Amino acid sequence: MTTVPSEFRRFVPQLLHMITLPVFFFIFMLLYQPMDVVNVMGDEWFAVHLTIISCILLLSVIVVRLLYYFIPLRINYTLYACWCLLEMIFASFFVALYLWLALHRDMPYFEVVQISFRFLFFAMIFPYTILALGIRVYAYHSKGVLPDDSQVQRMRFYDVNHNLKIVLTPDSIMYIASDENYVNISYAENGKERIYTLRSSMKAIDELCQENGLVRCHRSYFVNPAFVKVLRKDKEGVIYAEMESRDMPHIPVSKKYYDRLAELLY
């Protein structure tokens, strides 16, 4: 399933998201006053309550968006829609808490939560829809503007801060090795081996590697089967992938991944 473009996980798009939602909510509620919202908040203090609620919404969105920014996950559009829904639910609990305490409503707290969610959903469905369409248009446009000689599949590697660091073709990558909080990407360039050190984790690049033909052969290694010459077992019974070039290290192969890699070689 298509994943959300990684560019939208960067800080500037998240900042725009944090600002847009509460500002739109404030303006929309102030101008249109839907769902009898004035009677709920009170006519005399309506603007004051609306301002405070918008600030609560801003803080709630900041918390959720920072989590989205820092958690290194590749999510598709369905999961992103669920994330946005959870964002509204999360904000609803805090908005409801303010309304319940400030207005002294003679009703259960969770009933106020339902009312708050209806207000937020009705107002924020518009900016969420616009932002979602913006993501889809960007993804479609970024695919369509590539020239003919750039249609070759490419792997885009991002660091922990979602900044694009290196773009490689899958057939140029020999292997990827984990090194604590970094991964070392070994690739061929002009007939020579190059190594790029990326601040990331094996988990963060797992889906990207699987989609592009790299095979997990060890908890700390991905390998390109095209560069594997043979699988050998040493005297101690440890299996290694012997690479085509003598200058390249032998890659350890776990028993868990041996059958899968062997099938691709023979």
Description:
With 266 residues, the chain is of the alpha+beta class. It is 51% helix and 20% strand. The protein contains 7 helices and 10 strands. The chain is elongated, with a radius of gyration of 25 Å. Residues 145-150 have low confidence and may be disordered.
Architecture blueprint of SSEs:
Elements: H1 11-32, H2 37-41, H3 46-70, H4 77-102, H5 109-144, E1 155-158, E2 164-168, E3 173-179, E4 182-189, E5 192-198, H6 202-211, E6 215-218, E7 221-223, E8 228-233, E9 239-243, E10 251-253, H7 255-265
Antiparallel strand pairs: 1-2, 3-4, 3-7, 4-5, 6-7, 8-9, 9-10
Helix pairs in contact: 1-3, 1-5, 3-4, 4-5
Summarize the structure.
This protein has helices spanning 11-32, 37-41, 46-70, 77-102, 109-144, 202-211, 255-265, and strands spanning 155-158, 164-168, 173-179, 182-189, 192-198, 215-218, 221-223, 228-233, 239-243, 251-253. With 266 residues, the chain is of the alpha+beta class. Strand 3 and strand 4 (182-189) form a beta hairpin.
